[in-house]
Amino acid sequence: MLHADGIRKTFGNLEVLRGVSLTANKGDVISLIGGSGSGKSTFLRCLNCLEHPTGGEIRVQGEAIAFKPDGHGNREPASKAQMRRIRARLAMVFQSFNLWSHMTLLENVIEAPVHVLGVDRKQAIDEGLRLLERVGLYDKRDVYPAFLSGGQQQRGAIARALAVQPLAMLFDEPTSALDPELVGEVLKVIRALAEEGRTMILVTHEMSFARDVSNQVLFLHGGLVEEAGAPAEVFGNPKSERLARFLGSFH
Ligand code: ADP
Ligand code: MG
Prior knowledge:
Layout: E1 2-11, E2 14-24, E3 29-34, H1 40-47, E4 55-60, E5 63-64, E6 67-69, E7 75-77, H2 80-89, E8 90-93, H3 105-115, H4 121-134, H5 150-162, E9 168-172, H6 180-195, E10 199-203, H7 207-213, E11 216-221, E12 224-229, H8 231-236, H9 241-248
Parallel strand pairs: 3-10, 3-11, 8-9, 9-10
Antiparallel strand pairs: 1-2, 1-4, 4-5, 6-7, 11-12
Bound molecules: adenosine-5'-diphosphate (ADP) and magnesium ion.
């Protein structure tokens, strides 16, 4: 479903990704863990074309993203249309709640279906309300983001991501910016998505959650996958000393 092979990314002289590969099959929940600056966000952003890898290949449902030189030693997508299509298949939820502040929650959720995908407005509203119900925010449908807690905003962002019926969901530290008492309600929604078999790639510092919900864990260090495997192996029996030390810092 989603395949990244040897992804490299440099910013100027800084080599942030040095050949990261990942394969996500349907229903996989893959956690990316690693210290700050190890390249987790950059990798996730490369997957959905928010950044363009300097090297390596990305295939989504078998379709390779075509790149061309951007004239500054990097690459950019050869086709804007393809980039938009790929991006729409992979919905991203960010660390900071990024609902549009000038729209109500429901308007946020139906925006992309109506204006990008061309879904009939009435149908988008029905579906949007169903999604808000799922994340426990039906009664907040007409509220503006500023009047929602961080946890509610993040659940709203998840509903909005689901509304485009993505092939896979990408989460970049979705609970890192939340007050501790609000983390649980967001993890509960993500867990429910995992249980219904959604394909997800999750950058997280919630180690016990990652261990619980994922079927594959990648530990990044210095722009490389230092260790990867099933959660029981990676968390229970780390082979790399760096990984052991990293996991130790959470106790
Ligand atoms: P992580 O998410 O694992 O903390 P990031 O992928 O955000 O790591 O960052 C990896 C490295 O890349 C960091 O050193 C960061 O400063 C650098 N970096 C990320 N984005 C940019 C950018 N747009 N320009 C220059 N450097 C960047
Ligand atoms: Mg990051």
